[in-house]
Design brief:
The chain has a single domain, classed as NAD(P)-binding Rossmann-like Domain (Rossmann fold, 3-Layer(aba) Sandwich), CATH 3.40.50. Helix content is 45%, strand content 15%. The protein has helices at residues 21-31, 43-55, 70-84, 108-136, 155-175, 193-199, 210-221; strands at residues 9-13, 35-39, 60-62, 89-92, 139-144, 180-187, 232-235. Helix 3 (70-84) packs parallel to helix 4 and helix 4 packs parallel to helix 5 (155-175). It is globular.
Length: 240
């Protein structure tokens, strides 16, 4: 049976900490035949995750970078093209909630930080791969939004994730004639090691699993999702 991503080249951002969504997605894509580039800010973390993947037989480049910097984004895209010749799939996973307080207490720095990490980074990476995919005549971009209604005390994060949905729809429209599909995954509460340690839940049954998120990402990247673009797919487990 053919692998879902056999001979595909994928760049996955936000692959840093152990027990997080990024490494779960990277492992699932590698298991389905993809060759990878993985990126995040912390060099030692990225290189450690790359070694994990290589131990499982994956072909992977470790690409530490600050993805809010245009020059560093362009550098890792050029490295992918240099080593692999193309990029078939981009997974914009970098970001996360880092400011949690009432809106009136958000500083301009807080706002800029959440927007840069969660929205601007996805824009820069998508913009950098778009001409490469257009030239190739196909490509897949998968962004990460959030499931559910906006919550209090995270106004900048909420707005950044709303922006991700707008970015997804816009790029899908602009990429349709070049067969570039653009979709977003919107996770619910995920069983990452950091979430579990911080929240200490008594029952994880209603949480979304990292495996759920990883398999959804593989599906959207594969031929099985060839008819899907411009969509945001909520993955909430049993916590609907």
């Amino acid at each position: 049976m053919a692998l879902a991503l056999e001979n595909k080249i994928a760049l996955v951002t936000g692959v840093s900490g152990e027990g997080q969504v990024g490494i779960a997605v990277a492992k699932a894509m590698a298991a389905e035949g993809a060759s990878l580039g993985i990126s995040a800010r912390n060099r030692s973390n990225v290189e450690a995750r790359a070694e994990e993947l290589r131990a499982d037989g994956a072909r992977v480049l470790a690409l530490p970078a600050d993805l809010t910097r245009e020059d560093e984004v362009n550098e890792i895209i050029n490295r992918m093209i240099q080593d692999y010749g193309r990029i078939d799939i981009l997974v914009n996973l970098a970001g996360g909630l880092s400011v949690y307080k009432p809106a009136e207490e958000h500083s301009t720095g807080d706002w800029q930080q959440e927007m840069s990490n969660n929205l601007f980074s996805a824009f820069l990476c998508s913009r950098a791969v778009f001409p490469k995919m257009r030239e190739a005549g196909s490509g897949v971009i998968i962004n990460f939004a959030r499931a559910g209604s906006p919550q209090a005390n995270m106004v900048a994060y909420n707005c950044a994730k709303a922006g991700i949905e707008a970015l997804t729809h816009t790029l899908a429209l602009e990429g349709r004639n070049a067969h570039i599909r653009v979709n977003a995954v919107a996770p619910g509460l995920v069983d990452t090691e950091s979430n579990v340690a911080a929240m200490k839940p008594k029952d994880l049954e209603r949480w979304t699993t990292r495996t759920d998120i990883a398999q959804t990402t593989v599906f959207l990247a594969s031929k099985a999702a060839a008819g899907i673009t411009g969509q945001t797919l909520a993955v909430t487990g049993w916590g609907i």
